[in-house]
Amino acid sequence: MPIKAILGFPESAGPARHCYFIGTAGCNVGSAEKSGVAGYFVRSAEHGPGQRSAPSLPGSACIPSALCFLGFNSPARRRRSQALCLAAIIGLGSSGRAEDTPVAKFTDITSEAGIHFVHVNGAYGEKLLPETMGGGVAFLDFDNDGHQDLLFINSGYWPGHIPAGHPNPTMALYRNDGQGHFTDVTAGSGLDVSFYGMGVAVGDYDNDGLPDIFITAVGGNHLFHNQGGGKFREVTPEAGVGGAADGWSTSASWIDYDNDGKLDLFVCNYIRWSPELDRAAPFELPNIGRAYGPPRNFEGVFPYLYHNDGGGHFTDVSAAAGIQVRNSATGAPVAKSLAVAPVDVDNDGWIDLVVANDTVQNFLFHNEGRAGAKAFKEIGARSGIAYDAYGLTRGAMGIDSARFRSDDSLGIAIGNFANEMNALYVAQRDSLLFADEAIKSGVGPASQNLLKFGLFFFDYDLDGRLDVLTANGHLEPEINRVQPTQQYRQPAQLFWNRGETRGAGFTTVPSDKCGTDLFKPIVGRGSAFADIDGDGDLDVILTQVAGPPLLLRNDQKLGHHWIRVKLVGTKSNRDAIGAWIKARVNGHQLSRQVMPTRSYLSQSELPVTVGLGDADKVEGVEITWPSGTVQKVTPQIDRLTVITEPR
């Protein structure tokens, strides 16, 4: 609905082409222009303290303190616009009625479950950028007992700044007893090592039935082979996946990009960084002094793509494969990558890569279906994923993809920086063309003020529709002194997918529907989900910088049914990463991808849960394996079914 109609102005009032916003959060002048998407949209021209890129989605770009329609001569009309314009714009992306949202409580069981991990970032006052970016986590079944264990990625102290009496922190591995209680088994596991860790990727790269672990870091990456018996051995040198000794890697993913049955490895790299370069970039905020600087102060770096040669060795094929994007004017690397969503975007049987970049354009690496040279082609701008609706870049952090609607359209959700909305790019008739539907879907305006990191789709109420959860937290501990609307510690945000029958889109879930524990303010970073206690619903872990995680048990009591499927590949990679499970329920097709890489720096469980709602049966389940094999199966209701690929 056009804004004039919402405000009560007649069509004769003329188009509101001169609506100017003056924002409180450092936003300066912006203008409202006519849009074919949502009637009118607002754009901020500049950004201010604590904002790293211009607010840039249709709708309110910042929280305004004053606004006026210069095209309206009547003072009464101008006063009326000041009171109602923001509400009208946000109303265009209305997220539905909260009373329709089901009650499904999340309970903080971190201490009760035996989790005592605390992330260490080593901050000592110099404000070095890696200090505020870490916090990966993984759910994995490292001992193959059928229970989802936990691995926390730690950072550490800087050389010369280790506090007296404090040993260097290590990673933390916790074994799950199947009831949601965890035991710390780090000591002697081989993961009791210290380096400045960032993110994690889990995958059985040698198809021996045991999940292996790749950890990204500042100063070189690390690969650990699962030896069995709770023991891991570092094999980085012989595998050839350590990366640059002075590099800074972030998220990573195991994928089989050439469908040869062996998992390859994609690694995001952030910026060209060193303590010296950081100190030389004088970034300050008023009333604070030195602060964590934006990535614009640093050069970009290429991501890595490693081809699995077999025998425990990998070859770096980054340059030949077509994933190195250069600035057309300078030839310098463009990428400043924080997260990746591997997904077969166009259903051609080859897995593609959507990469979230911070303050530069996002990438869509389309898999051309050929091994070797030019395996991928970057089509982010052409597809509509690279930029926002104005052709501007955003501070993209966490990312996930899913077929979240009953029409099976692919959605790519990205959590962006503070004063930038979430993005929700949805495939159009052409599967390689996307439109950002964050506003009209309801996940946009409500997310504006938060700084989003971890983000994933999951069906928390088991109604068959995929919901969205974001973990949030600012970079700067004293940001509130500069921007009163911002806080360092921020609550998570949960969006319930209300489905087509209630008006397609998402509803922001209030605390009276899911409990207050989920919304405890933290400096949120990584996030993941798994069924930790075998009851069928999905529990959540949120990590934070320089603090303990938040383990949230899903205590929903809605009585919904579900199926849970674990795939074992034979011709395909053993983890079946990249496979699609399509369940037919009440005449609707529910599609789920086997993909542990989600969110930011993190990995969710490998088994796939499909909520059935009130249905007590499925009309059919079809699996499309990465090898191309299509298999029809009949999983049991309300329990785990293990399915092996036909040979």
Q: Could you please describe the fold and organization of this structure?
A:
The protein is mostly beta strands. Helices cover 8% and strands 34% of the residues. The protein has eight helices and 43 strands. Strands 3-2-1-4 form a four-stranded antiparallel beta sheet, covered by helices on one side. Strands 5-34-33-32 form a four-stranded antiparallel beta sheet, with no helix packed on it. Strands 6-7-8-9 form a four-stranded antiparallel beta sheet, with no helix packed on it. Strand 41 (620-624) and strand 42 form a beta hairpin. The longest helix has 18 residues, at 75-92. The protein is globular and about 60 Å long. Residues 1-51 and 53-95 have low confidence and may be disordered.
Describe the structure using short key phrases.
647 residues, mainly beta, four-stranded antiparallel beta sheet, 8 helices, 34% strand
